[in-house]
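Field: COMPLEX_INPUT
Field: COMPONENT_COUNT = two
Field: RESIDUE_TOTAL = 299
Field: MODE = joint
Values follow.
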Amino acid sequence: MPGKSAGTVASAAPQGKYPFPRIVKPKAPAGTVYRGNVGMWSWVLHRITGVAIFFFLLVHILDTALVRVSPEAYNAVIGTYKNPIMGLGEVALVAAIGLHALNGLRIILVDFWAWGTKHQKLLQWIALALWIILLIGFVPRHLINVFSE
Amino acid sequence: MTTTIEAPRTPRTVRRRGINWEKWGWIYMRASGVVLVVLIFGHLFVNLMIGDGVKALDFAFVGGKLSSPFWQVWDTLLLWLALIHGANGMRTITNDYAHNRLVGVTLKGAILAATVVLLILGTLVIYTFDPCPAGQPVDLLPTFCPAVGS
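Field: COMPLEX_OUTPUT
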């Protein structure tokens, strides 16, 4: 149906040793702009940390609701947050929240700001740097609190 | 040499009328996300960094916070924004991975039920909370409670 064609594209005539762009078979599933790059891992970590934080939030609302039951009930449960194993869990929690928050801000900057879209790779490294700074500020202080006395 | 491209068989889809909920969900994740960064890091700073951090958390600490309207509003916003943000994220993940329709509907029903129950529970706790409950050991209560002074 020539009358219904969407348009025509002129393609270059075959020339040289490789007439068409040579496609190199990737060694591993990779090779697109996105897959296997930093952006993909940010996406993966955003999902994993998001799910983890969600389940913590469910538990945290329930344990805080115990203030409505009695001071003893609340203190008994919050006491478990102070043992060293939970202390390490709180480090993981803050690390997950920090990653999710900074990556979320990066996504917003890429979505709404042309500069952010253009320099999305730089933003990934800025987010990572801020995350490390956040943990340097939090982890030693928290661990001193957990392991003191 | 020219290549002819046939007209695509799929006709242009006319956008459905009504509210585009997915778009508003997308906007909500970003808008609530920015506010949550402030609310959550404020919450973490006050509860884990100031003073003795996690070691200072007990009924008296929470009672002191929740008896102030400032922290009541803070915690209400935190509860609603964070739980809906999390539930919508879980809904997105369910849509991505639950290929079986029944599994998807069941999981999303569970997410919705948990969210509604916890929003109601959490809000009731914040606004019906009594920092100085009668007949409780005085040493567990905040110092501003009348019984503590006697």
